[in-house]
Amino acid sequence: MHNPLTYTIHARTMMQERMIQEEWITMTVNNPDFTESKGEEERHYLKRIPDAGEKILRVILNPSVTPHRIITVFFDRRIQP
């Protein structure tokens, strides 16, 4: 996916609080290790981020709007690196 991305206010806040770089989000959406679909309005992209100590970044995106909207982002502690 190489469409432009937009971010909810919540997503921007979480990026700042969790020190998640926009570059990591773009990398995760464009080249995920795996994805999960949660209906038409929610897709989860997951990727191991070496620069973050091998943590798994989960990016939740709404693909049903244009441009695609990032809903939230977090390091998924349920998945072990």
Properties at a glance:
81 residues; alpha+beta; 5-stranded mixed β-sheet
Give your account of this protein's structure.
The chain is of the alpha+beta class. The chain is 22% helix and 37% strand. It has 2 helices and 5 strands; from the N terminus they run E-H-H-E-E-E-E. The chain has helices spanning 9-17, 22-30; strands at residues 5-7, 34-37, 43-49, 55-62, 68-75. It has a 5-stranded mixed β-sheet. Strand 3 (43-49) and strand 4 form a beta hairpin. The protein is globular, with a radius of gyration of 12 Å. It starts with a strand and ends in a 6-residue tail after the last strand. The model has no long low-confidence stretch (mean pLDDT 92).
Give start-end ranges of low-pLDDT stretches. none
Task: Determine the mean pLDDT.
Answer: 92
Helicity, in percent? 10-25%
- Backbone structural class: alpha+beta
By DSSP (H or I, 4+ residues per run), the number of helices equals 2
For the largest beta-sheet, the strand count, sense and barrel status come to:
5 strands, mixed
How many E strands?
A: 5
**Straight-line distance between termini:** 24 Å
Portion in beta strands: 35-45%
Radius of gyration: 12 Å
Along the chain, the helix and strand elements come as EHHEEEE
Q: What overall geometry do the principal axes of the alpha carbons give?
A: globular
Spatially, the strands of the biggest sheet line up as 1-5-4-3-2
